[in-house]
Amino acid sequence: MDEYFFKVLKMTPKIGVFYFLICLLSFSTVMANDSFKLANKLYDEKKYEKAIEQYELLIEEGKTATDVYYNLGNAYFKNDEIAPAILNYERALKLDPSNEDAAFNLKIANNKTIDKVEALPSLFIENAWQTFVTSKSVDGWATLSIISIFIALLFFIGYLLLSQIVIKKIGFYGGALLVLVSLFTWFMAHQNSSLLKSKSDAIVFANISSVMSEPNEKSNKLFTIHEGLKVNLLDEKNGWSKIKIQNGNIGWVKSEEIEEI
Known about the structure:
This protein is α+β, with helices and mostly antiparallel strands and 261 residues long. The protein contains 9 helices and 7 strands; from the N terminus they run H-H-H-H-H-H-H-H-H-E-E-E-E-E-E-E. The longest helix has 34 residues, at 165-198. It is globular and about 80 Å long.
């Protein structure tokens, strides 16, 4: 580490600061990897509570990733804490909808919940569209868009530099097609982002939660829900959250009894 600082001092101030920041970033990345490995080691040793502490510490430090949430969900599940397990599987899928392991384990965890709520029927086209939009994360769609436009540029360069007519046609039409693909995948990223912003979900953490007609304890009790149920958040007011469950029922619960995904 002394050699790094010596090199920094010999450089110009701006380059030195940049070099120091790169070293610091690399060091923090290594530390994050070490913490993740430690958490995984504790999990393998079946020390689930200590593994949970390590995974949660990573998240508090901003080291969020689908693998961290997935492994944390597994640790909670092994520790017989179903609601936190479901919450973290959902968060893993929010970052990476293609995570099949998280989706499979989420189904297993949901089977352990008390409430089996049937979803209201939706239009096939609407449901298929939302499934397609959320089949990749926002970052996933954005990455495809960038890759498409980069390859399109290569095609156009080939069109401009090469003389063979067939290759020039391939370069032009291939580049044009990839530009359209890039625009479409960018649109998918935007749609996914808009969907996430418009829809906020939460997991019930209370063993039993009373759903009230208004945001106060003196209002009428409509029905009860239990730990692990996924609900849609509609509004918040004075420590109460307005929720909607999959069968369409709506009411108010105490905000402290749920955890937003």
